[in-house]
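dumping these here so i dont lose them again. two proteins, back to back, each one seq then structure tokens. dont judge the mess
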Amino acid sequence: MSKWLASVQSLEEAQVLLPVLPDILDMKDPSKGALGALSLETVTEIVALINTRCQTSATIGDLPMQADVISDAMVKMARSGVDYVKIGLFPDSNLNICIRELKKTVKTLGTPVISVLFADKSPDLEIVSLLKESGFKGVMVDTAIKNGQSLLDHWSIQQLSSFVNTVREKSMLCGLAGSLKIADIKPLQTLNADYLGFRSVLCDKQQRTQRLQLELVEKVQQAMD
């Protein structure tokens, strides 16, 4: 059965979630892009608040595919004490080289690294083998352009099933996210991804930059159960 991830954008939102903690509490700033980063100070405060009651993850921002830039951001974010550091892999002619150059940092970081691909950017799933070789713990698929279209508007259940199987064949964690709705939960659970990730459906007016609402979080938790 798939577990679930909820993204928060502040310490205040993390406090709201305390009565209904997800399996992974994710931290990002949705006003700064698909994987906008919160400050190291804020992430550290949230990790301390959660105090191991659930796992935590944090994004490092929508960064250029330059290994030195990404490595520096990963090392800094890992200092917060999160369980996972998440990095977005955007289309770039330098992408494969970048991943290979990240290998040393990923393998010596001490904090598992999750890579995020984007369904609306037509990723090549052959990259999963390279990610495994480079030490990444898992692979998620998300949407880069936040315009109300969900993951299922870009990839069919068959495509998502292929993605999940490709990742799990490499014994890596697999996650699905991208403006997921409650109605998406049941069909996506049949794919047996490790995690389903949520943000917009948890927020007022289903707008990812709006404030998270406890009653909406409870609805998602009930649907997951």
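---- next one ----
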Amino acid sequence: MAPHTYLEQGLSVLRARLRTPSSIPGARQEIRPFVTLSREAGAGATTLGRELIPLLDREFRDPAHAWVFLDRDLLTQALTHHQLPARLAEYLPEDRVSEIRAAIGELVGLHPSLWQLGQKVSEAILQLAHVGHVVFSGRAAHLVTRALPGGLHVRLVAPRDVRIARTATALKLSREKAEAHIDRQDEARRRFVRSNFDQDIEDPHSYDLVINTDRVSAASAARLVVAALRERMAQAQPAPAPLVTA
């Protein structure tokens, strides 16, 4: 499948931003907005991401910083930024099989260790979050960026039957294969967060907003996220310095 136009444009924008220093040494660091989406398999992160981008561009208008949605392209972007072959992204899906393959690849000298690759992805996420105007999907971005004040962290959930039906339709699978697919995805993501961050991906306390996408449409969810991010940015901005009178 060819990349969506907005992703092609967005990745070009990100590459340009990453080549340009985002701050001047000694200057106060500007707080920049970003969103992380953690999701159950089939909960609709990609659909929400597409709805979010135009709303965020309108709400947080900045001609120099168009919003970008990074999901499956995140690994490629991270690896490219760190001068590693994009094909190494196959060693970093959120599953146990990749750990075995990655270990073999490391032993025969195909690539750095899985830990080093994971670190590079996390570094890229953190740098892009500092730049701002990015919606991240997956890769525990909510934990990587939790110290940054401009982020809004969202968890997407939906009933199991709904997610199975969506996956079967989207991937043209039987119900049985769709069920197995979401089980693998959910377990892989739980294991990834547990093994790398010692956290529970399903812990609601890790998020600012948990949305049931069976009850809330993608358009409504996008409006909720924008409103919550607007409030987050208002709270995160430093108070003006008091006036000094003679």
